[in-house]
Each structure stands twice: as C-alpha cells, then as structure tokens.
Design goal:
The complex is a heterodimer of chains A (162) and B (487). By secondary structure, chain A is mainly alpha-helical. Chain A has 6 helices and no strands. In chain B, a hairpin with a 5-residue loop joins strand 22 and strand 23. Chain B has an 8-stranded mixed beta sheet with strand order 18-21-16-15-28-27-24-25. Chain B has a 7-stranded mixed beta sheet with strand order 8-7-4-5-19-20-17, with no helix packed on it. Chain B has a 5-stranded parallel beta sheet with strand order 11-10-12-13-14, with helices on both faces. Chain B starts with a helix and ends with a strand. Classes of the chains: A mainly alpha (162), B alpha/beta (487).
Chain lengths: 162, 487
C-alpha cells in the first residue's frame, strides 16, 4: 500500500465509522423524539462509543503505519481516522448532558495519541530495522495497547457502576 | 488642612447612609397550616417589609423547582405574595430575599399520607371523617391560588368564614368547586348559594350545603361515595401532540451533505489538509446551523364540561423543543399562567411570577438539542354549550341545541362510534345519521372516547384558541361536552 493509499484508506475508514455512528445516533434520537423522551442518554452513549472505537483503532493503526511509513504518514492516517467523526460528535454532544470539558479532553486525548503513537512506531523501526519484523511487532504492540485500554475502561466502567 | 478634613468627614457622613443596605423583614407561612400531600401543590404566604424604598428580588426554592419575583417595597408598607409551589419530598421550602444582608426563611411542610379534610369553621370545631386527616382552619389559612387546593381532598366551610375570605381566596374557592372539588358549605345564605351554583362543576355533585355539622358530615360521606370524573393525567394532553421533527430533519440532511462532500473530497482532493479541514469546517457549520434554527413551541388544550354547565375544566400542555445547550427564558400565555408546573416532576425549572404571586410570567430551564421540555397548565373557563341527544331505534341520533348560543360543527360520540355533528343554531335540532366510524383513527377521538362512559353521549369540538394571548402559532384545542339525555 503506497503512502496516499494508506491515508485514503484510513480516512475512508474514519468516514464509514462516522457514518455508522451518525446512523445509530440519529435513529436513537428519532425514537426518543417520537416517544416524547429525552435523547440525552442515547447521545451520551453515542459519544462514549465513538470515543472507545477510535481509541481502540488508533494505537493499532498509528504504531503500524508509523513503523512502516514513518511518523508523518502514521500521524496523517491516525488523524484521518479520528477527525471525520467530529461533526457527528458535535451534534451528539449538543443533545447530551456530557460536560464540554470532558468531551474536549477525550478528543484531545485521541489527537495526542494520533500524533505521539506514530513516533513510537517510528522509534521501533529504528530499533528493529527489518520491516518484516518491525511490522508484526508494531501491530502486536498496538493490539496490546488497545487491549490494555479496553481492560482499563471495563474496570473503570465496573467501578463506576458500583 | 482642617477644611479638607471637614470635607472628608462630610463626604463620609453622606456616603454612609446612601450605601447602607436596606433592612428587609421577611416572614413566610404555608397555607393549610403547613399540611399538604406528596407531589401536590400548596402555597406559601410571604410578607415583606423594608425600611427604605427598594426593589427586592424574592426566590422560593422547593425541590428542583424555584419561583422568583421582583417586588417594589415601600417603607412602612407590607408587600404580600402568595406563591404556589409543589411540595418537595424534603418538605423544606427556602425563601430568600436580595438585596441587603442574606434574609432567608425555611418553611416546613407536613406531608400527609391520608387524605386531608379542611374544616374552616368560625367555631373552631372539627369534623372527624374515617380515613381522613382533619385540619381546623381559619380564613387566612385558605390559599389564594386555586392550584393550592390540590393539597386537600375535601373542605367544609361555614358562612362566617366564607364572608371573611378576601377576593382572591374566594376566586380560588370558586375555581376549586368548578374543578370538581368536594365542598360542603354550612349555613350558606342565598347569595353564597347563588355564587356556588354558578361555579360548581361535575354536575353539581361535589358541592352541597348543610344546615348542621352532622348534616355536613353525612353529605360529605355521601359525596365521597360518588366518584368524580377522573382528572386528566398531565401526559394525556401531550399524547395529542405531533412529534416535532424539524430539527432532526435539518440535522439528518446536513450530516448527509457532509458525508457526501467528504466522500467526494476523498476521491478528488485526497490531500491531508483537506481531509482534516473538511470535518472541522463541517463541525463549525453545523453548530452555526443550530443557532439559526428556531422551532416554535406547541400548545395543546384539552377541555371537558357537562351540558349546560357554566364552566369547563381544561388541561393544557405546551412543549418547547430544544436546539442548543443553553438556559432559556420563555414567556407564558397570561391566561394560562395561573396554574402552571413542569409536566415532568423531576424537571428543574424556575418560574418568574408577578408582584402578587398569582400568575407566572416566564419559565426558565436548561435545554439542549432534541430535548422537549413541557409545561402543564390547568384551570377552568366559561362555557356555553347545552346539548340534548335522543337515540332512535334506527341508530340515528336527534341532537338539539338547548342553549342560547350557536355551535360550530364537530363530532358526536355515541355508543363507541363517531358521527359528524353539523353546526346547530339555538333551539334547532339535527338528525345525526349516516356512516359512523371508530374513534381509533384520531388521537383526539381516542382520548375523548376514554373520557366518557360507554353509555354516555358526548360532543367534541375544536377550540378556537385565537383569543388566548401569547399562544404559539402551533396551537390546537378540543372541548368535550357530555350530553344530557333528551326529555
């Protein structure tokens, strides 16, 4: 996959993810309106889901592309995955009761991760110069990071529910 | 030097009194001697007095609701406000006044699990009624807001106490009787009897007059054995409203346009700055779009009455669709503002009332996109519909206008079916026959059919709400009148 194609693929994935999210959020909001209910709960769920899915995808993508194509391409691909959801998230935030600071912090975390993690991939490539070895290591590291995030999130959600 | 000191002293002496804060005396007491029932409305009687002329801001908070009022205070004069509030589970009402040093009073409400019987007799006697908690009341314990009568379940009052009521108390009592409130009047004179006759609702079954306390007790027991027409639930009128999809449609179309534009940009302009800038610009454009959308509120009025009754009971429901996250302050229709509350008990809201506390002028609440905050109003209005219906063997009905005013066309509900009802002038009759339909097709007809007995005949008309000042453009209303059987 060449440089442009990798970014395009990431952007397309980000767009498809955003479209799926928009469909879900608009559907739940329509149901809430028709039933005379508040769409805030569904909107907060949509914000949460959007953050979680992108937070799981970014480490895998950023480390892998960073290791294969360098920091610039890694960051471009990761940002192209994160950014297309913003219009949907802005609308979902408007319909939710989630504090603005919390939403901005979550998006900021994703942007920082999209910029910093490719650096890690790039550093890995420096340590392991062979691409056929660096690629699986970067992918495995990305998956491990995503799994750690998932577990941490699940533990946080469990302790919040108690 | 001494001259400067003198000037300084003079300045300090003059500035001192000017900057002194007004001393405001505040007292607050609840109606019904502090008794109410969970979730019902009661009233706080507030007295304010200031040593200087000032404009005071009053705030009464209970649960998630608060009521504010701006009061002009004159030195030496007591300003009195009676503010209707919903009883909170905590039963504590805090009243605060600014400016000046923080002045606050806590008013404690007692919430009774048993039905409450108000006994307002000049002799101070009590009527014991099984299952009821009886309250001995003086004239001043009775509220000025009709909505506060929801705190009690029945009232016994004698003529001397009735005479001692002020104009607003009397108005609230009349509204209570019109709203099917159970009332027994002891030793009612001819004038009082005429007044109550002109106002009593529910076929006059709820208001009676007695000659002695024993009679009053017997009549009350008899009245309690008869069930009154059930009050329409707060959400019922809301069920007649059409969901507002304007904002949802605008957002769905905008997002579709964004996705189409982003996909095209990805194909034809695959540069990174475009891919990053397009969503950021779309976000800004969508947020700007929300600022430009102003959906109108929707008002639904449902009213009911009995043929030839002078008053109809109404329940109104007004929905304010939200667009952006903000605190909004909406004006309330003046004719409906006397008894208003949020339709959802948990909704945080602040009402701004007039200087007497009798009428809510504005409501303030937090809103957001797709949030539909609804306000519920209730009360009575004068009605002039007198209808007599006779059923024929062939299934048709002869409908006669026995009143003094012509009707517009409407629908007749009889035996679970709906017939078109033509406009009829006073004294005239019409034979209602032809194709009858089931009420299932229309939400208003469905609601109407649930509000009458199966053997009862009623007419339903659309209400003309053009006379309701401040009513939104999207306003709809109905009047359901139960017919009297033809002689």
């Amino acid at each position: 996959m060449n440089e442009t194609l990798a970014s395009r693929f990431a952007a397309l994935s980000g767009l498809v993810l955003a479209a799926a999210l928009a469909l879900w959020w608009l559907g739940s909001a329509r149901l809430a309106i028709d039933q005379g209910a508040d769409a805030a709960r569904g909107s907060a769920d949509a914000l949460h889901a959007a953050w979680l899915v992108r937070a799981l995808l970014v480490p895998v993508l950023a480390l892998r592309v960073g290791a294969l194509r360098g920091w610039r391409d890694g960051a471009a691909s990761s940002l192209a995955m994160v950014v297309p959801s913003w219009p949907v998230l802005a609308m979902a935030w408007s319909a939710s009761a989630v504090p603005l600071g919390q939403s901005l912090l979550a998006e900021g975390f994703l942007v920082v991760a999209a910029i910093v993690l490719p650096l890690l991939g790039h550093g890995l490539r420096r340590v392991v110069p062979r691409s056929e070895l660096a690629e699986p290591i970067a992918s495995a590291l990305g998956v491990a990071l995503a799994a750690a995030l998932w577990l941490g999130h699940a533990r946080w959600a469990f302790s919040s529910a108690l | 030097m001494s001259r400067r000191l003198l000037l300084l002293g003079l300045a300090l002496c003059c500035i001192g009194p000017a900057s002194a804060e007004p001393r405001i005396e505040l007292s607050a007491g609840p109606a019904w001697k502090g008794w109410t029932r969970p979730g019902r409305t009661t009233e706080i009687d507030i007295r304010l007095q200031s040593d200087v002329e000032t404009r005071a801001s009053l705030d009464v908070a209970t649960g998630r609701e608060s009521v504010g009022a701006a009061v002009e205070l004159q030195p030496g004069r007591v300003a009195r406000l009676q503010i209707a509030i919903r009883s909170a589970p905590a039963s504590a009402v805090s009243v605060r006044v600014t400016p000046g040093p923080p002045t606050a009073r806590d008013v404690t409400l007692a919430q009774s699990e048993s039905p409450l019987l108000g006994v307002a007799l000049a002799t101070g006697e009590l009527v014991a009624l099984e299952g009821f908690h009886a309250l001995a009341l003086a004239a001043d314990d009775l509220p000025r807001n009709a909505s506060a009568y929801s705190s009690i379940d029945a009232l016994v009052i004698d003529a001397p106490t009735l005479v001692a009521l002020d104009q607003r108390q009397l108005g609230a009592l009349v509204a209570y009787t019109a709203d099917c409130g159970r009332l027994v009047v002891l030793d009612a004179g001819a004038a009082v009897q005429r007044l109550l006759d002109g106002a009593r609702g529910c076929g006059a079954g709820a208001v009676t007059s007695a000659r002695s306390l024993a009679d009053a007790k017997a009549m009350l027991s008899e009245s309690l054995a008869t069930s009154m027409p059930p009050t329409l639930s707060l959400a019922s009128a809301g069920a007649l409203a059409r969901p507002g999809h304007a904002a949802w449609n605008a957002i769905a179309v905008s997002l579709a346009v964004y996705f189409a534009a982003a996909a095209l940009a990805l194909v034809y302009l695959p540069a990174l700055p475009v891919m990053l800038l397009a969503p950021a610009l779309a976000t800004a454009a969508l947020l700007a779009l929300l600022q430009g959308v102003h959906p109108q509120s929707q008002l639904i009025v449902w009213s009911e009455g009995k043929s030839a009754a002078p008053l109809a009971r109404y329940q109104a429901w007004q929905r304010f669709p939200g667009i952006v996250r903000e605190r909004v302050r909406v004006p309330l229709p003046p004719q409906l503002g006397a008894a208003v509350q949020p339709c959802e008990a948990g909704q945080a809201m602040r009402f701004e009332v007039d200087a007497s506390g009798a009428r809510a002028l504005f409501a303030e609440f937090e809103t957001r996109l797709f949030r539909q905050v609804a306000l519920c109003y209730r009360g009575t209005f004068p009605m002039e519909r007198s209808i007599a219906v006779a059923a024929r063997a062939d299934g048709s009905h002869v409908v006669r206008n026995t009143g003094g005013r012509a009707w517009p066309s409407g629908v007749l509900l009889a035996a679970g079916r709906v017939h078109e009802l033509p406009a009829i002038v006073p004294g005239a009759a019409a034979n209602v026959a032809g194709e009858a339909r089931r009420p299932a097709a229309d939400a208003a007809l469905r609601l109407a059919s649930t509000r009458i007995r199966i053997d009862q005949t009623a007419a339903l008309w659309a209400l003309d709400l053009s006379g309701v000042a401040g009513a939104p453009v999207d306003s709809t209303g109905w009047l359901l009148v139960a017919a009297a059987p033809a002689r």
